[in-house]
Design brief:
Blueprint: H1 10-47, H2 55-87, H3 114-147, H4 152-169
Helix pairs in contact: 1-2, 1-3, 3-4
């Protein structure tokens, strides 16, 4: 048996796994929504004869990729936490739900025009915002729980998760200015 990275108290393993699962599902959905819209925009650009990217588009894509990589790194750690929490469930307790559930992708038009482009832009913004906010609904409580564990890896992950939640939602009322 391999050593576990995250030492989760058995009495907290089920809740930890459930919150990690919720966050993972939303972060995977974020990635899927991003990819779905990017593919449509790439196809639309090709249909309009715009195969080359200008510097502004390259900069925007680089920024989006950097943000996506940060989320993917967090997702990897959450997957490790979920696996470790599942391994530390008390005897007789099991988590019978899928750890990552799929979210249906939004409808995107089959044609390209100003209205369709506006629809895709709004859909993209709504989809990204919805998935990020959904992730924070599970990850906020997860960060609080992890910060109370005696395990240094759990507390370090709690700080990274909390930073993500603050980046998405902003600092809450009563927070000290940074």
């Amino acid at each position: 048996m391999s050593a576990l990275r995250f030492a989760v108290p058995p009495d907290q393993a089920l809740l930890t796994l459930a919150d990690a699962s919720g966050g993972l599902s939303a972060l995977f959905a974020f990635d899927a929504v991003m990819r779905h819209h990017t593919e449509w925009l790439t196809d639309a650009a090709q249909a309009l004869g715009r195969d080359d990217e200008d510097d502004e588009m390259k900069d925007a894509r680089a920024t989006a990729n950097a943000q996506t990589e940060t989320i993917r790194a967090l997702r990897t750690e959450l997957a490790e936490l979920a696996a470790d929490a599942e391994a530390q469930l008390p005897e007789g307790i099991s988590y019978d739900l899928p750890i990552v559930t799929e979210t249906p992708l939004p409808f995107l038009p089959e044609t390209v025009g100003p209205r369709e482009l506006l629809h895709v832009e709004k859909s993209f913004k709504r989809g990204i915002a919805a998935q990020l906010l959904t992730a924070t609904e599970s990850l906020g409580p997860l960060a609080e729980r992890l910060s109370g564990f005696d395990d240094e890896e759990c507390r370090a992950l709690a700080a990274r998760v909390a930073a993500f939640v603050v980046a998405v939602r902003g600092a809450g009322p009563g927070s000290a200015p940074s």
